[in-house]
Design goal:
By secondary structure, the protein is mostly helical. Helix content is about 50%, strand content about 5%.
Length: about 180
């Protein structure tokens, strides 16, 4: 945060008097030692509306992020890219899975005193118009068409994306993680 407070960063980023302002904050942001400050500010700023966009399948999310880190590609506008399968460390996958669940709970806790709207990518993709209308209503904005040029970056089944897929299925069996591995949606 380069020595700035959360309020200063927002004021610099949004100097005009817009009706609606927003920002994207990942669970692990910011990267420097002032991590708590932005989260403490968010918890106290009761007038901030929180839209919590989550991935239903944390395993798929981790695999997609791992592929993006390896390939240096963080978005796709032209459909799926040809890629080589990755090997997934089962211990790291388990750590990421349960850490992400803790992050979800932490945001829900922070949001208790806020207007809060939680949705998943699956819901958004499944009913873009309906969910878009709900989001605009939540933000007290007039109805308007919403779209994105982005496409799903890794639509392939996890069994094609992960070179040690069978090993992971054996390690995780019928656990939550094992079920997420077999959930190809």
């Amino acid at each position: 945060m380069n020595g700035l407070t959360a309020e200063q960063i927002l004021a610099d980023a949004y100097p005009c008097q817009n009706v609606c302002e927003g920002f994207k904050l990942f669970y692990f942001h910011p990267y420097d030692d002032r991590r708590r400050e932005v989260w403490d500010w968010l918890e106290q700023a009761n007038d901030v509306r929180i839209i919590h966009l989550i991935r239903d399948n944390i395993v798929r999310s981790h695999i997609s992020q791992t592929i993006a880190l390896r390939d240096g590609v963080w978005g796709s506008r032209n459909g799926a890219l040809k890629k080589q399968p990755i090997e997934v460390d089962p211990h790291r996958l388990e750590l990421i899975y349960y850490t992400t669940l803790q992050h979800h709970q932490r945001v829900r806790q922070y949001a208790k005193s806020h207007p809060y709207f939680e949705l998943s990518y699956r819901q958004l993709i499944g009913d873009t118009k309906g969910v878009g209308r709900m989001l605009l209503k939540f933000l007290d904005l007039p109805d308007a068409p919403m779209s994105s040029p982005m496409t799903r970056q890794n639509p392939e089944p996890l069994s094609e994306l992960v070179s040690n897929y069978d090993e992971l299925c054996e390690v995780f069996g019928d656990s939550e993680i094992g079920q997420a591995l077999r959930d190809d949606d």
